[in-house]
């Protein structure tokens, strides 16, 4: 299958969702930034927001409106605890969900070392306003798995498709 020309530069925004993480102790967000830079992606910005549906939605809406950003990667708030509301905040903003992302993430998590606890992850991805949004758990292991195995190998193709 022929694909369009892959973009030279992809600019991502990283958003950590947490009531406790800050720039000083956000190891998951730092790991996303590390992998992005290794892959030659430009980090357009990195931010933090509390586990609050309205606040998360407002920040993501602003990021999606930024013409300089091609992708938004969030970390945190994807579990089943009452405070885990990242999915609920972002899902209404998505025009298309990439169901395969969450399915593959849980499959790889199960196979690697998480076992049946992988079913508790609500990691997801989708598109909105011509951009891709990845919603990752807050653990370093989950971020590493998602970035190495799923996001980095496909982000250029996804963005190229969205730019058509």
TrEMBL record:
Pfam families in alphabetical order: MoCF_biosynth
Source superkingdom: Bacteria
Pathway annotation from the record: Cofactor biosynthesis; molybdopterin biosynthesis
CDD domains: MogA_MoaB
InterPro entries assigned: MoaB (IPR012245), MoaB/Mog-like_dom_sf (IPR036425), MoaB/Mog_dom (IPR001453), MoCF_biosynth_CS (IPR008284)
GO biological process: Mo-molybdopterin cofactor biosynthetic process
Residues covered by the MoaB/Mog domain: 13-158
Record keywords, A-Z: Molybdenum cofactor biosynthesis
Matching SUPFAM superfamilies: Molybdenum cofactor biosynthesis proteins (SSF53218)
Coiled-coil segments on the chain, per record: none
Gene Ontology cellular-component annotations: cytosol
Gene3D superfamilies to which the protein is assigned, alphabetical: MoaB/Mog-like domain (3.40.980.10)
Function of the molecule: May be involved in the biosynthesis of molybdopterin.
Protein family according to the UniProt entry: Belongs to the MoaB/Mog family.
Protein name as it appears in the record: Molybdenum cofactor biosynthesis protein B
């Amino acid at each position: 299958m022929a694909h369009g020309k892959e973009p030279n530069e992809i600019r991502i925004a990283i958003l950590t969702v947490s009531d406790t993480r800050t720039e000083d102790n956000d190891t998951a967000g730092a790991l996303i930034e590390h992998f992005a830079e290794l892959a030659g992606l430009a980090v357009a910005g990195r931010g933090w927001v509390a586990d609050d549906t309205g606040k998360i939605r407002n920040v993501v809406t602003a990021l999606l409106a930024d013409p300089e950003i091609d992708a938004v990667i969030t970390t945190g708030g994807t579990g089943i605890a009452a405070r885990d509301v990242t999915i609920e905040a972002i899902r209404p903003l998505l025009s298309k969900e990439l169901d395969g992302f969450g399915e593959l993430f849980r499959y790889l998590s199960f196979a690697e070392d998480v076992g049946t606890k992988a079913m508790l992850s609500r990691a997801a991805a989708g598109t909105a306003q011509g951009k891709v949004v990845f919603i990752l758990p807050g653990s370093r292991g989950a971020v590493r798995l998602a970035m190495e195995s799923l996001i980095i190998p496909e982000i250029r193709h996804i963005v190229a498709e969205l730019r058509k």
